[in-house]
Amino acid sequence: WSEIKQLFPVLKKSVLELTQEASAATVVQAALDSANIMVKDAVRSATQVLKETQALLRTVDELTLKYEYLMTASSNVTKLVVEGQAKVLAAENKIQSQSSSILKAVNIQDSFTTINNEIHQMQSSMTNKFNTLQNIASELPFTINFQTGASATYSFLEMTSSSYVNKLFITVQFDVKAHTLNGVLWYLVTHPAATQKSGVFGLYLQQGYVYTTFNMGSGDVTGRNNALLKTGEWYRISATFSPRYAYLVVRSQTGFSTLSRISTFSSTFFIPVNGDSRWYLNNVPQSMSSWISVGSFSGIYDNVHVNGYKYNVWKSVSTSGVTLYAPLRMAAPKLTNGSALTFFGSGYLKQRMGTFQTNGIYSEIELEFRTLKDNVVIVGVTGQTGSFVYGLYMFGGRVMFQFATSQGNNNAIVTTRATYNNGQWYRVKASRTGVNATLSVQSISSGSASESKTEYIGLTDLPEGISIIFGASSGQSPVPPPVSGVFAGDMKNLKLSNSITSSLQMRSFNASENIEMEGVSYYGMISGKIVNGIRFYGYMWWSQSGSYASITTYQTVPINSIFMSFKTTDMNGLLLYKPGNGIMAHVYMSILSGNLVVLVHLSDIRTPFMTTNLTLSDGRWHNASIAYTKNGYQIHVDNKMLYEGWLGNNVNTMFGTGMLYVGGVPSQMPLAREMPIRRSLQIDFDSFLVNLIEQDFTKAFTSGVSYAGITPGHDSAVAPSSCAASFPYLMYQPDPLQVRFGRAPWSGFQSYIGYRLPAAVVRKYFNSSFVITMSFRAMVGNGVIFYIANSEINPTQYISLELVKGQLKYEFSNGKGKVSISSANGTNYADNGKWYKVYLLRIYQFGAMLIPETMEYRNSRHSEPTVPLSLSTPLYIGGLPNYVNAPSLTQRKYGYNGCLRKFEISSGFDTHALDFTSPDLGGTSTGTSACYSNTEHGVFFNGKDSWIHYANNFELQTDFTLQVKFRTYKRDGPLLYLFSTSSGSSTLNQFGTMVLLELDDGSINFHYKANNLERAQTFTWTHPSSDERHYLCDQKWHRVKIEKSGPTLNIIVDDVMTYGGGNVNPMNRGVINGMMFVGGTKSGISIPSTTKNFEGCVELEMLGTPDTTFQRSVDGNNVVFACPTI
After folding, report:
1. Which CATH code fits 738-928?
2. Which residue among 597, 633, 960, 1093 is least crowded, i.e. fewest CB within 10 A of its CB?
3. Closest Cα to residue 610, out of 622, 618, 601, 598?
4. What's the rounded mean pLDDT across residues 908-929?
5. CATH number of 143-326
């Protein structure tokens, strides 16, 4: 196009010269007479030019129509444009070839001037049409092909004024296919009018390597990426610049990425840019050529993003040199014909009935679907009352066909052979013909009928259908469908019976019968396998918007921690954002060049955090978290703590409350321009937790967020050493009013805090009536929660609360009568890591206990005389000093293990609250600490010389049951080890009786030797699937049960799996008595296991008898009585 523009002025100039010379016709009249023949030839030539110009204009008109058509309907326009260019250039050549003939007509007559004027007018019209053509072409699905020496200049889309904005980062990303392997790729100049080289950032190729260079006024800083580019192949280049360092990622078309980081020692924090700042593609202006001397590049660019904004490369500020159209790197998505639809799990599609009717003698529905959900609506037909009278549903993973009769009866057919919520495609048909109803489900992949059922229903009339609803109940339906779940998945190839022709006909999902729809998409359906997960679409070209979710819950609830498990191939985009207001902090997380960026600030941004040399955009699963702690913000990536501090903020700057945006932000929402990027991220989440609570995005306001399934993450070429993410660090809860108790039971004393309450306070609050309230989160089922009495040596009056085998036991005694109340609703208050609030009431002889979370209320009274309580000991919380005698306690020897908060005593209208930060006794010297925010029930073994010595003289009978639960990310490790001390530690096939339960390469091995003279037997359990080595190391709780009865030994995993076990050698029997260890052994004691120590969490459920608890243990090392949550 540039060549065409340059050639038309030549034509105009020639015509002007012709006009000027024609005006001198009177001077050369004699020459005209002698050149009569030449004039005739010239006239013929001019007439021919006129004809050819008219033909050219018709060609332009045709091209214009073609371009307008291509704008909406063509995906193969490159060939037409190339042809158009050829025609225009050919026409121009023809015009140029006639110039000599035109110049010969120097002495043309007056009639020839008219012809010249017509030519001039046609040329002007043609110029205008070419300008229109170029504007149309800039919107076509083409990208740009720079020839050597060409360049284009662009301004920042987000900058509209001359006022400077301080950017923390500048990001650029583009796809490139090189014709040459040297030259400037991209160059930014923040101050184009500056004469000194400062505030410049660039990318260039040299001998096939990508270099980055930047200069903030202290000299050039240059670095190279180690990926070697080849001509003719596509690469994606992403760079992130800050004044202190730059990241450069080069990704090949096979998906392999190479990352480099270049550092400098600049003391500058920001990059100032404004509306006058410019960046260049393919070359730099001549005035700046001395700043970067590698020359011009030649190649094709596509998908150009700067600071997250996508640029139309044809809409530049200016262009020089030759630029040609080129096909996109990826073809524009094809328009859907409505044959398929994705349901996000938060919406539905509603259609009119059309020719489909349910009240005739024949009706049939056929469609193909896939889902991962159990109980959801596939399609339903509503009747006159709005209730569902006909439909297909997922019911417990099975397919159900249900319909109602006009008499009000409901009929249902349910598949029984298999479940169909595994993410595979199935074709389902449901029909009612005459007196029968039929339901069939067929696998699409195998093509064979998976299941078909026909039932006789007799002659019945069905109600008339009013509308068809796919995916869920319409918001206007007063009667819900038989199952309440909203469909998440895909549907395609819908066919409905035609009541007129009695045949099945295709019905489009975007047919004229559509009434309303939400939470669905015609675009972006995953073509291959799907697994569970949450999909954020990123930029959605069909709606010209980005995906995001906005969570309103935390506008009133302070945010303490955020955790996410995700995968993405997007190298730049927004992960989450919580706006601040000067009081509440801004919280910002994004991916830049594959690395994580975190900002937390109240006003001025000073210290962003950015990971180094990570590639989080590799399509593999990663996790990231940020949590508020007393030591600062903790940032973890892939379960490694990479930062702890305040990110330049004042100490104890909390995250606060506010709207939380995930994956992007609404397009109209203002975002501080200092923020690195606002572009929506194309990302999949496995989980997203705020304050340890999993977020349900179907209950948030979302755009482009789907539960229909995601693609599986990329697997490593070599099987990983761990099947799931390793355990995170235990993170402290920032609330100082929470206290964690629980020293190891073998330490010899308990952790506690104590308060010497003044006598007046004791009389006021404990004398006759009171209400004690507190919240607790217990990790162990036995322990003293609080105790106060009238004596530490020989108490007769007391008040106490303790945990006994997971149940709360509340008692008080006045020396004459006693009230004892225990919980008994089946809830174990120490096995789920939840917070519970308890109210304890006393009114003279009457007592009561209330736990609101479980709606448990218990009360009791004694009939003895009322005697005022005269209590004098300190109020002990969490445990007791060793010198305190408390015979009334069931679990005196066990201190409480877990967290407590907000302990208050009320009497009448007054309340006395205890300050956990300032106890009179105990505290940190006895082992109290801040609470962990990411724990659940269980004992954590860190795998580094960690073990528990459970008993010295443990006796295992000839028939026994051993049952433990565990959670790990390892495939190897010992769980239980019992060996006889009478014959020394055992090896598998030498003397010494022993039992060893272990994980071995993902299997369960149980080694059993009950007779010194017999060889040990090994019984193995393996998972029946092909992926058995990864089943037990998925960071989920698994239960393993070993049962021996007579000669039969069974290994049962997760209650329902009995794939291990066998017969015990009759001679290999007897009682085993010796030392029992859990999770490994201490130094000096060998263990016949492939791994000496287990890393993970363990719960003991039965070791011969149900009365099993770690609190009985003799000794231990490197264990925590709390299990880190993922």
Report:
1. 2.60.120.200
2. 960
3. 598
4. 89
5. 2.60.120.200
